[in-house]
Amino acid sequence: EAGVTQFPSHSVIEKGQTVTLRCDPISGHDNLYWYRRVMGKEIKFLLHFVKESKQDESGMPNNRFLAERTGGTYSTLKVQPAELEDSGVYFCASSPSMGASTEAFFGQGTRLTVV
Amino acid sequence: QKEVEQNSGPLSVPEGAIASLNCTYSDRGSQSFFWYRQYSGKSPELIMSIYSNGDKEDGRFTAQLNKASQYVSLLIRDSQPSDSATYLCAVTRYGQNFVFGPGTRLSVLP
Q: Does the distance separating the beta carbons of B95 and A98 come in below 8 Å?
């Protein structure tokens, strides 16, 4: 069974440009999470989808970040325009429907560098 | 504000010893607790989950949970150099996002 996949694995863009990150969760997982780890800091929550709906987007840093999950399958996270402080590793994770066993499985992450 | 705290380390133990990693959390309503291992440049990998007070053992790993003290720990027996990584504690309520601690760097010395 395929795990959580993210694309691209690395992205280097200039300040002011737009970047779109993609996450394909494990098939059948309703929950999809985006997290970010900036250098030297802990992994921080960005937002949580349940199917196609945004359950919690309290971690989104500002309105330059837009996440979508059309059809409840894959998700995209767009940063427009990118700023230097957006550099970091963006992780996507998915988990099955709510219940006692709600382990989240992580993708390999997208390393974003804004120069 | 939900918080999860861990000692950043590095925690150094000799090969074959027991490594003890600790985590405290502030949200008393937390229901699920996880330990992830993250090698440098890699994604977090789930190694243990625990949901009720007490101990849970899986191979060389034992997770311990004490909800009254808001404390969860991970013991690694017979530590190996391949266990050297950053260990992340994560806490969640059902249906909500995972809150991660900053991680503890473990170094197992041959």
A: yes
Q: Which of A41, A45, A110 to probe the B interface (max B CBs under 10 A)?
A: A45
Contact indicator for B84, B77 with CB cutoff of 8 Å: no
- The sheet carrying B4-5 orders its strands as B4-5, B19-25, B71-76, B61-66, B54-58
Selected for mutation to probe chain A from B97, B99, B104 (highest A CB count within 10 Å) is B97
Chains A and B form CB pairs within 8 A to the count of 59
pLDDT tens per residue across all 115 residues of chain A = 679 999 999 999 999 999 999 999 999 899 999 999 998 788 899 999 999 999 889 899 999 999 999 888 999 999 999 999 999 999 999 988 765 557 889 999 999 999 9
Residue A114 tokens, joined: 């804004």
Q: How confident is the model over B43-57, as pLDDT tens digits?
A: 899 999 999 999 999
Structural contact between residues B11 and B19, judged by C-beta atoms closer than 8 angstroms: yes
B51/A105 CB distance under 8 A: no
